[in-house]
Specification:
With 329 residues, the protein is α+β, with helices and mostly antiparallel strands. The chain is built from ten helices and 14 strands. It is elongated.
Length: 329
């Protein structure tokens, strides 16, 4: 009910809407409407109340309310349904639990805070409350499991486009799942799946972006390898607008991927922004590590690395560290 009332206030931002009108529309008492308005005010919405006129929305807090995201979102199915969480251990964990109960393709899970955010290989991801974008896109693709990793590349390019559209920042991609600015990590992507031998049951495409974190937020925890969009541009970024841009880019690229069955259509753009290409990389395997020059990304989304012995190695998994990108490399 509260979200429905908020939706009405947003859609009627240029006029007062009376308690009686809201009461009639939603079939509740005016007292109930007043209580929901009071709750919205407590959450940071500035709502002006005038006797004999009603209510008008003056401004909204920087919270990722679904109704405010969806009103500007022009997609067919990605983000058409949104689950909003104030706090969660991990949006991917929530997504996997949701998958066990069933979900609509393209549903978005977004949280203000993750208490146990994770990156690749189980690494901890710091998810500060109200300062970032912590979200998971849930998918039901008709794909074989070995194609799932290509969706990570689609997500990376979608985030890059979204950031560029909103901030005009030149972001680079570190294969396969990080985005960096001036050598520091600003975004991480974690794609997890539930699958059988030859079919994917679900995909959780987790995206974490440091949006409005301050320099001190990283310094306090001794994290000198990360940055945020706000630190880079020197001003607060509209998180809701950035989500909209990312979701629209993602749907566009993902639909083409499903139609064509490959990522060839976007590879040139992806490689143009790939910080690894032409650089020496260290491939850390389970019990070994090798070095070489990253030469290419193939149609499977695998990194092609020319080893010191001249052999061309196709890398589909494992951690790739890039010299000169992160300060600790």
């Amino acid at each position: 009910m509260k979200e429905s009332i908020l939706k009405e206030l947003i859609e009627n931002r240029n006029r007062y809407i009376s308690g009686q009108e809201l009461s009639k529309k939603f079939g509740v008492s005016r007292t109930a409407i007043w209580k929901y308005i009071k709750k919205l005010k407590e959450e940071g919405f500035v709502i002006e109340s005038v006797t004999n006129k009603g209510y008008i929305l003056i401004s909204s807090p920087d919270a990722l309310y679904p109704v405010e995201i969806k009103r500007n979102l022009k997609t067919e199915f990605i983000g058409k349904e949104i689950i909003y969480l104030d706090s969660v251990d991990s949006t991917n964990n929530y997504g996997k639990e949701l998958a066990s109960r069933g979900f609509n393709d393209g549903i978005l899970i977004v949280a203000e805070e993750q208490t146990k955010g994770r990156g690749r290989l189980g690494r901890e991801w710091i998810s500060q409350k109200g300062k970032g974008i912590w979200m998971t896109i849930m998918l039901k693709p008709d794909l074989k499991p070995d194609m799932a990793s290509q969706v990570t590349l689609i997500a990376a390019l979608s985030v890059l486009r979204g950031i560029k559209n909103v901030t005009d920042i030149d972001v680079m991609i570190k294969w396969p799942n990080d985005l960096v600015i001036n050598g520091k990590k600003v975004c991480g992507i974690l794609t997890e799946l539930g699958a059988e031998i030859d079919i994917i049951n679900y995909l959780c495409v987790g995206i974490g972006i440091n949006v409005n974190s301050e320099e001190d937020d990283f310094n306090k925890i001794g994290l000198n390898t990360a940055t945020s969009l706000k630190v880079t541009v020197g001003k607060t970024i509209d998180r809701k607008r950035l989500i909209v841009e990312i979701l629209e880019s993602f749907e566009n690229l993902y639909k083409q991927f499903l139609q064509k069955g490959s990522i060839d259509y976007m590879l040139e753009e992806y490689k143009k922004h790939l910080v690894n290409l032409g650089k020496e990389v260290k491939i850390i395997l389970k019990n070994d590590e090798v070095k070489g020059i990253a030469e290419d990304v193939n149609g499977k989304g695998h990194l092609m690395v020319r080893l010191d012995n001249g052999h061309l190695m196709e890398v589909s998994s494992g951690e790739v560290s890039v010299r000169g990108v992160y300060e600790y490399v």
